[in-house]
Records
---
Amino acid sequence: MSKCLVCQNEISPFISFGKMPLANGFLTQDQFKEEYFFEMKVAHCSKCNMVQLTEQPTKELMFNEHYAFYSGTSRAMDQHFEQFAQHVISDYINSDNPFVVEIGSNDGIMLKNFKKANIRHLGIEPSENVAAVARGNGINTISKFFNKELAEEIIKEYGKADAFLAANVMCHIPYMHSVVDGIKTLLKPNGIVMFEDPYWGDVIEKVSYDQIYDEHVFLFSVQSIKYLFEQHDMEVVDVEPQETHGGSMRYVIAHKGARKISENVHKQIKKEIALGLHLPETYVTFKKNCEASRDKLKSILVQLKNEGKRVVGYAATSKSTTILNYCDIGSDLIEFICDTTPIKQGKYSPGKHVPIKPYEEFKKDYPDYALLFAYNHAKEILAKEEEFKKMNKKWIMYVPKIGIK
Ligand code: DWN
Ligand code: SAH
Ligand code: ZN
């Protein structure tokens, strides 16, 4: 038993994925012996509906000057964040000298659009190496972890914010009450909060359990976000489903009573109830679905190995750490994983120690099969890899369905 991070209710895990390393803990051979592991268990809170890890590594272990994920590695995400920024600018910002704050701003993939539009902005990005890229491009960025105290410091230096933005970071922070308190203090009376994260409804429907890893301490739903913000006198005024990261939800939030609540919010909650996100049996089924997915993927790889086929992993995503460790897939089954991120190349995957090689190694000598760990970028990647297909090589997919195509 442990306590819900949002409402303090007693919770107990419905699944354990076993021992897990840091999802972005790519390492060198001499670091193998001191590798960090924790038991990754997930619980659903019956009171506030928040789905959460019951244990998480410290923030400094995960987010530091060696953080391996650079947002700018996907062109499609670049376009996504340009549209996100345009949406904020045209639909939500109308004061004289607006000020926009983004947390988890990484290499500046979103904020560069505000800089281009000459809008006052501040990025909060604790991982120094990715923040340095943003600063190098003239994006105003500080390397700290966002919380209530930092919000107060920001107000002293810049004043209050018209918009508070976050993408794929709110679900990384366990001390949510300090964060939401900070947002509430920082936001102007008519200001807007917009953030998006992988959506628990999509994870349940697609059995995309690889969205669960150390960094993702929460898997949000509209119901759980509504509960959380209502504790702080704020309300969800709109929700906008997104296709990114295999299915995400963007939450639009304002001070209580400041804006009209869209019908979309009620509609989405109805969908969540129909999907049974509040019911214990949903979690029993999800666990069974994860096990079935794991067994099927593993059996495909074992069969290909027995047939003497070459299989390579495509993209060393955070998600792949969950897949490799939970399914017990090592370099006996996949030769290596190719990735375009220089900091990952030449290292080994967390836990299972599969070599990570530059993308060019994949191009140089196509394997018979490529296991697509970045299914969220499938459109972009499949378009780029037409030649691979033409040579009659095959993709192994596991989300939204396990199979070969
Ligand atoms: O929430 C998070 C999201 C935003 O990003 C973080 N906690 C960590 C990270 O998750 P991820 O690692 O699962 O993200 P992606 O975007 O699925 O990772 C893409 C990886 O794939 C990068 O290492 C770059 C690589 N890649 C590649 O090798 N070739 C990507 C593309 C598009 C490609 O063509
Ligand atoms: N927004 C980007 C990056 C997401 S990765 C995108 O969607 O592509 C998550 C980022 O959040 C990392 O760069 C990490 O360093 C940062 N982060 C983690 N905890 C944070 C906190 N408490 N405050 C601000 N940023 C944080
Ligand atoms: Zn709770």
---
Amino acid sequence: MQTRVLTGITTTGTPHLGNYVGAIRPAIEASRDPTVDAFYFMADYHALIKSDDPARIEASRLQIAATWLAGGLDPNHATFYRQSDILEVPELMWLLTCVSSKGMLNRAHAYKAAVDKNTEAGEDADAGVTAGLYMYPVLMAADILAFNANKVPVGRDQIQHIEMARDIAQRFNHIYGREFFVLPEAHIEEQVATLPGLDGRKMSKSYDNTVPLFEGGARRLRETIMRIVTDSRLPGEPKDTDDSALFTIFKAFATPAESAAFAEALKGGLGWGEAKQVLFERVEADVAPMRERYDALMARPDDIEDILLAGAVKARAIAAPLVSTLRDAVGLRSAKHRPVVQAQPRVAATAASKARSPRFASFREVDGSFRFRLFAVDGEELLLSANFADPKAAGAVRQRLGSMGGAAAVVESQGDHLALLLDGQVVATSPAHPDEVLRAAAVVRLREALDALAAAE
Ligand code: TRP
């Protein structure tokens, strides 16, 4: 059983060493664990809450995508995408908004901080606060719940958001009476160091104390490292490594043996200037090959776009059926393809979904014709057959569908629907899937169901 691990990266700034050590590197490592099903995405809708500068939004999401790929994330293994390519996310956000308590959102740290600041300044409590900032936690809940993620690696400042996502998921499950959502858990990496910045405080854009990861190349990396604040001990004097930002950054890149040797040299009186050169060389040894890949990727934005769109297709294949189940659950149903059975939850299996095989349900129309539907294991309606005058003809088609297997199925798009053909005749159609990606995902599910039926024969 794989654990679905999901995290988002807000695309406002340019990645720095602290982002790399604290988030990117551990996430890429985790994605290589075969028990992990990693979903990593650019939270570019969230970025709009923080920035209304289109050029900056555009540049940042490209840079961040290139950074993760250059850092070694394998997009064929992890699901790597942009939030704004997943149309189901804003749709789910609305469904969640309608069960979220406003009082809960009033208590969100980021919103409260804005209100407190206004109050202190004697301004109106909500001065300058957008509804986007206010709704931030619901959008984040949609990011997580659209994929039923189990674990969400985040910084401490985000724990409250995960708790809200759990709260919202619970409310939705409760109101609509089924376990649609698994409850996500925040995952805080305890061993991962928060990197100090140039001034010794946590490396952060807001303190303006960052060391850029790739921007400006080796030269800029070296120049910035040379600006790290140290104490005033002279060369020859023993240096204290305990609260040295320089040494802490070194440790984040070096092996324990390398760190021990460096600590030894500092105690032995190595000058800070030379120490900075040693640090630069150690960081550069790791960063240089990644920077080369980064520059190559940034020179080919079309390739990055293709990778991200492929990631979006993979992601939507999961989010789309869930959101369609949810639409149905809240009553946003097609008047045509009305489900005959209640859709079963996708996640938590109930006794009723014990039959682990797709199934047919035959029925007679008022006009006397014979038809059937095909349902997936989770209750999703996959196909509705054409009308047959004679029950034997319907039975024969049903039998052929049951034994053909997914690969043999001839499926084509007809408007919003998929049509399944036998001997050049449309024998069944799917419910409407309003765009191409959704139809592609539905074809995959249909073929899977046909495979499962053939296997069960
Ligand atoms: N709010 C997160 C941050 O600033 C980014 C984010 C957006 C996120 N959506 C998410 C993180 C979903 C985890 C899961 O760090």
